[in-house]
Amino acid sequence: MIIWQVDVYRRPLMDELDKPLWEFVVCNPDKTFAAYAFCSQADVNSQWIVKQMTDLAEQSTMPDEVHVFRPQAFSLIEAACDMLDITVIPTRRTPALKEYLSDRLAVYQALPNYTDESYDPIAIDSPPPLPLDEALWGDRWRFGALLAGDIQLFLADHPMPIRTVPDDLIPVNLGLASNVMVPGVIVDGGRASMRLARWLQDANPVALQYIPGAPDGLILDAGLSDRWILATFDDPSMQQSAQTYQHRLQHSNGLHFLLIQPDDSGMTYTGFWLLRHEKPV
Q1: Is pLDDT at 59 greater than 90 in this prediction?
Q2: Which among 82, 113, 108, 112 is positioned nearest to 14, based on CA atoms?
Q3: How far apart are CA 100 and CA 25, in angstroms?
Q4: Closest CA to 146 of 112, 171, 181
Q5: CA-CA distance, 153 to 75, in Å (whole number)?
């Protein structure tokens, strides 16, 4: 499968009319291919993106999928890809593209039309987290852990209707030793188990964050920029478990999981997601 990671957004540059200059940037996941093109803000539209992609395809091959991390760029790129019959995937995991964009900042700064404004090429506005509907969350939840070497065996031995296990997050592909404890959150959903798993599937979980405070909180990062309050707690034993969760994250290279099950019988499971906190480029 051919994948392009694509961004279209304004840069800290001005055109000849002192209007913001936009840039189309594309690369592939292994960073063996990259290209860019500038455009005045007034001329940025889906047809222009179609032309950039079509021109690039003459030199290589049109992608099967386009991955987009920036919410402000998604609709524009999606409209262009619809014309080209290309699937667009909204995902925060575009490491090659983010590295390329970060490298290009030095290029912008050397240009005569650089605005000298404060600019982070990969920053995304982070909205306040929204509370999750209590009817979705189920009966109870807890912090847990799985040995890195047992995760694939666990998935093979326990069929479940919903699972998201990206190849690049499989422990062996992250170089994790089999005896590393991978932390996670386990939810006994009860009657809400399938409803919660389906909601999560649509929300596209990215990472779970423990936020200490008064009270402490468990925040789900999902989609391109969504944030949800999954739980708040001030119980000392739960706080201790949360600190253990954080400690294990440091040793698991940020890898963690979310497991949804009807109950704690160990007989049936509903959904499983391997997640990972993004690291700065």
Answers
A1: no
A2: 113
A3: 9
A4: 181
A5: 39
